[in-house]
């Protein structure tokens, strides 16, 4: 077999595989939507679809952001979300939302969303908002007022805190129906890693670590 013939037969085996890759987005578009069938559980490929015959207008509607929970200690902020687990209509659409109400002195602590970029819009009040670049370890912070937007790139640790004397309210949208969230305080102190180990890896006093574990629900 000549080299040209060998290359030709290699292409014959590769082309069908490439065709599947190219066609898969189009195949996904053959279904207009996929309301999450929450009782059937999440999977690595996402939630299975609710049978379209059972879908109603209510599946595309959610009122959970009309109000939010009372400010919670120790951050003095109330949060409500419209992720796929509470709003099945966003399943598979690459979008979701959340609302944060920060009382005076309230803080949204340092956290990150491993699966989504966040676009934050200020509905009321004045707040500081910033993120820390993972590669440069540089902080980007802005003072935001009513009507302002700030984008927080996927996976970057970020925060907000109220700068005023009245409640500050922000609405965030995300580039995933399930953006995920990890809060630094709970990552460090809401676990069962022994306090002496946390003290070593954070260079914090062990007694302070124990106090913080008690505050954030950790043990050991």
UniProtKB/TrEMBL annotation:
Disulfide bond positions: 34-49
Coiled coil: none
Residues at which oxalate binds: 113, 118
Keywords, in A-Z order: Apoplast, Disulfide bond, Manganese, Metal-binding, Secreted, Signal
PROSITE patterns, alphabetized: GERMIN
Subunit note: Oligomer (believed to be a pentamer but probably hexamer).
Record: residues binding Mn(2+): 111, 113, 118, 158
SMART domains attached to this UniProt entry: Cupin_1 (SM00835)
Family annotation (Gene3D superfamilies): Jelly Rolls
Function: May play a role in plant defense. Probably has no oxalate oxidase activity even if the active site is conserved.
Source organism per UniProt: Digitaria exilis
Keyword Ribosomal protein: no
Protein family per UniProt: Belongs to the germin family.
Signal peptide per UniProt: 1-28
InterPro entries the record matches: Cupin_1, Germin, Germin_Mn-BS, RmlC-like_jellyroll, RmlC_Cupin_sf
UniProt-recorded Gene Ontology molecular function terms: manganese ion binding
Gene Ontology annotations for the cellular component aspect, listed alphabetically: apoplast
Cupin type-1 domain location: 63-210
Pfam family, one: Cupin_1
Name this protein carries in UniProt: Germin-like protein
Compartments (UniProt record): Secreted, Extracellular space, Apoplast
């Amino acid at each position: 077999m000549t080299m040209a013939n060998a290359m030709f037969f290699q292409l014959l085996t590769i082309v069908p595989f490439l065709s599947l890759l190219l066609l898969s987005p189009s195949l996904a578009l053959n279904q207009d939507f996929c309301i999450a069938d929450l009782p059937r559980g999440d999977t690595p490929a996402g939630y299975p679809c609710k049978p379209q015959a059972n879908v109603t207008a209510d599946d595309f509607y959610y009122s959970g952001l009309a109000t939010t929970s009372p400010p919670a200690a120790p951050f003095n902020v109330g949060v409500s979300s419209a992720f796929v687990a509470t709003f099945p209509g966003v399943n598979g659409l690459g979008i979701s939302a959340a609302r944060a109400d920060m009382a005076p002195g309230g803080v949204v602590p340092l956290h990150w969303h491993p699966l989504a970029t966040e676009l934050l819009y200020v509905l009321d009040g004045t707040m500081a908002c910033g993120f820390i670049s993972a590669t440069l370890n540089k902080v980007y912070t802005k003072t935001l007022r009513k009507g302002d937007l700030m984008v927080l790139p996927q996976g970057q640790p970020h925060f907000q805190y109220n700068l005023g004397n009245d409640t500050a309210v922000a609405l965030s949208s995300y580039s995933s129906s399930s953006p995920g969230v990890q809060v630094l305080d709970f990552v460090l102190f809401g676990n069962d890693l022994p306090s002496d180990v946390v003290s070593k890896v954070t260079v914090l006093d062990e007694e302070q670590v124990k106090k913080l574990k008690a505050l954030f629900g950790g043990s050991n």
